[in-house]
Amino acid sequence: MPAHSRPGFPKAPPPRGPNSPRIPSFYRPRPSATPPLTGPRLRSALPARKIVGLLSELRPQQMFLRAVSSGLTSLFRTPGLAAVTAMSTGTFVQLDPLNYRDGARVEPVDSSGTEKAFEPATGRVIATLQCSGETEVHLAVKSAKAAFEIWRKKSGMERGQVLLEAARLIKEQKDAIATMETINNGKSIFEARLDIDTSWQCLEYYAGLAASMAGEHVQLPNGSFGYTRREPLGVCVGIGAWNYPFQIACWKSAPALACGNAMIFKPSPFTPVSALLLAEIYTKAGAPPGLFNVVQGGAATGQFLCQHRDVAKVSFTGSVPTGMKIMEMSAKGIKPVTLELGGKSPLIIFSDCDLEDAVKGALVANFLTQGQVCCNGTRVFVQKEIIDKFTKEVVKQTQNIRIGDPLLEDTRMGPLINGPHLERVLGFIKSAKEEGATVLYGGEPYEPTDPKLKHGYYMTPCILTNCRDDMTCVREEIFGPVMSILPFKTEAEVLERANDTTFGLAAGVFTRDIQRAHRVAADLQAGTCYINNYNVSPVELPFGGYKKSGEEVGMHKPATVASAATPVFLSL
Ligand SMILES: NC(=O)c1ccc[n+]([C@@H]2O[C@H](COP(=O)([O-])OP(=O)(O)OC[C@H]3O[C@@H](n4cnc5c(N)ncnc54)[C@H](O)[C@@H]3O)[C@@H](O)[C@H]2O)c1
Ligand SMILES: O=CCc1c[nH]cn1
């Protein structure tokens, strides 16, 4: 009987089978008496017992939130974060230190400059962060090394218990964390809540794996035997992008911690706030102080981290140009690196599709998080027979997407991350027009009627037609709400065009022909291929890329998500 179905067994993550596809590469398979064996074999076992008693060791949380609009200063504590959920757009200011070291928020001891973080909905500054200098980075590494010495000696089961408790705390504080994410990132609260769900699911998943990661026993001649051990690497660095701040921090830390490593996480300077909530949660869940440290800053801080001699691995999410620099720095230190980079993914819509679903799929593939999603399917190839019908419907639905205050329940599109990025996206639309594309809808700056949103970074979602494969808007990652529609005739033709890119993060196919769906998915050079859906990222599946979209260990493990559900619908 599987452990989780035993009577009286606490609610636990689902068991994972052997050769689970997301076995993280935060482990060093270490040969003992025999040469290393390849191909990890994991048995499923669940660290499902809840930790009772860890809560008594909690440090008091300190989070100062000032309600600017009312002129009042209030002090709230993070447990429950009740005050945050009650906040409205235009009221939040972060006054607490934004670094986290040895289990507490700290100001960095040295700084390489300051950065301002904004509330994209209003254009207000919500935090000014000190970019950590070399000494602060060194202190963070030192603290993480000390925590690693404690953590690496724990059993997988013990590590899983801490992760499970952290997952429970995230779930408990979901609305508050989502509110914070919306305030700092601009994505709608509707989406932010989905992100927080995938975040705690990620921790639960790795909690489930932690106890079952084991080496191998190898029988040798004449009664001899050898065995391999799986050992953590040490202090790992996570560097994140701004589009999924909390989720990325979880995606990076959960596998690292499950395997026995410590992590120093550097969020994007645009979204410094929510990683601190995760740090506090890990501490509260029983992680030793220093196990998950946060340092703030931009490129310089990132470089100090990557170049530190005591950092064993770098896991990076961000753009291709930065990914190249990270790989170069890591190569110099002979450090393993995981790169999760950008994309320009194709979405292929065959004439036999369920048109209603395909339209929803195209919306979700292009306009989630204001189009600022790495795996978005922005090259929408539509078979000629249905292109007019599809285009008409997709425009109609796009017009219905509610843009505005991201904290309102019925908003589906908030602002872009900041002013320069909005200008960059509008620049792509301008050059698309110059190159001969037609703007069928949107692509303009947008000013919501609410006066407090006047200085926010809003634009209308954009649909381009008359596009050619060689146009800039079709070749380059725009990272904004811009869909390019491209006609095609045959399967062979569209496959060739879809794969004609330097990226390879994701792809999608809409068709009722099941054989074609899997044939096309297999031939698409993409880390993930969605069938009759888009932008669902189950934690059980790998999330990697072909070509410049980045890769884990130099081999392809493409995932196909054949979804039985209909795509999330963005228009109301
Ligand atoms: N594949 C994925 O899973 C995934 C997920 C989210 C975002 N992305 C990609 O991220 C990009 C957008 O994010 P971004 O604008 O934050 O990317 P970015 O490359 O500008 O920055 C990413 C992070 O790297 C840091 N950084 C910048 N220069 C550095 C340097 N020289 N050394 C060390 N660190 C440095 C930044 O401060 C930030 O924390 C898009 O291309 C998007 O597709 C990919
Ligand atoms: O930007 C991409 C990160 C992602 C994709 N799906 C969920 N998160």
Note the main attributes of this structure:
binds the ligand O=CCc1c[nH]cn1, alpha/beta, eight-stranded mixed sheet, disordered N terminus, 572 residues, 4-trimethylammoniobutyraldehyde dehydrogenase activity, 33% helix, binds nicotinamide-adenine-dinucleotide
Short overview:
The protein is of the alpha/beta class. The chain has 15 helices and 22 strands. α5 runs parallel beside α6 (245-258).
- What is the share of helical residues? 25-40%
Distinct ligand kinds: nicotinamide-adenine-dinucleotide, ligand L3577AWF
Tell me the strand order in the biggest sheet. 17-18-19-16-15-20-21-22
The rounded distance between the terminal residues' Cα atoms is 44 Å
Average pLDDT reading = 87
Outline, from the CA principal axes?
globular
Strand content: 15-25%
GO molecular function: 4-trimethylammoniobutyraldehyde dehydrogenase activity; aminobutyraldehyde dehydrogenase (NAD+) activity; formaldehyde dehydrogenase (NAD+) activity
Main location: cytoplasm
Pathway: Amine and polyamine biosynthesis; carnitine biosynthesis
Region (Disordered): 1-42
